[in-house]
Amino acid sequence: MRYVTLIGMISLAFLIMACGSSKKAQDMEGVTAEDLYAKGSSELTGGKYEEAVKTFNLLLDRFPATDLHIDVQLKLAEAQGKLDNFEEQMDILLRLLRENIIPERVPQIYNQLGKFYERAAQFNPGTVTNDTMDYKKAIEYYNKAYNYKDSDDQNAKAEALYRRAITEAKLGQVNKAIEDYRTVTVKFPDNTFGLLARIKLQNPEDTSELAVDEASLEGYRQQLGLVPAGEQESMESPAEEAAEPADTLDESFEPVPADTSNQE
Question: Over 70: is that where the pLDDT of 234 sits?
């Protein structure tokens, strides 16, 4: 009797597992590598790093031959770094460098390695020798990214020069930082990092990270006077524009004055 009961329990367990696997398969039906990549990227941007790691690993498991393989690995390494899983992050990046499947992506790998050493310096507060060495190592990787000849990834190279400037400022080399910020604005004027560099030039000693969401970027453009006058006026004065058809409103109605103060 016990034997029969045991067999029944085992059978039930297998049945439940089979149903679970079947449900997962149904949930994944029609989902593409691009769908999972977009989901993982959104989770990474939104600070849901553990979810991003799971999504990117699922993508690599389900679509091992995807053309997004390198991009996924880079995103996965970034997410691991955000979780302070530095060993996993470094393993991924060094493996990508060894494989060197797509040279165009190499500057992105070097940039992540540079940011890895920038982060490492934060674990040695007050230890001048150690954190200085970490910052110098970061600069070495940013140099490699910027000077890598087999890639024309302008965004990665702009980021490398921008991050080199920030790292130089962290080392107290403000004049070098200013020179690099200026170079970014000249060589990459329409790039996001060109915009960030212009903001940094207003206070090059500031080593804080600038937000790069679209609302913040728009604020930087307004701060720098890069928004066309007509467009900026329309953004700053929506109340006046909405109040133009005054014939349809009570004569006693007065539009609320718009807030014309610039916001970062």
Answer: no
- Number of other CB atoms surrounding residue 64 within 10 Å: 9
* Listed range (117-126, 131-140, 213-222, 251-260) with the worst mean pLDDT: 251-260
Q: How far apart are CA 237 and CA 258, in angstroms?
A: 5
Q: Note the pTM of the prediction, 2 decimals.
A: 0.74
Q: What is the mean pLDDT of the chain?
A: 82
**Residue 110 · residue 75 · CB < 8 Å:** no
- The CA angle 232-259-227, to the nearest 5 degrees, is 15
Final residue of a structural domain among 101, 124, 141: 101
- In this structure, the answer to whether residues 91 and 172 fall within a common structural domain is no
Is the same domain home to 224 and 123?
A: yes
Domain residues for 146?
A: 104-228
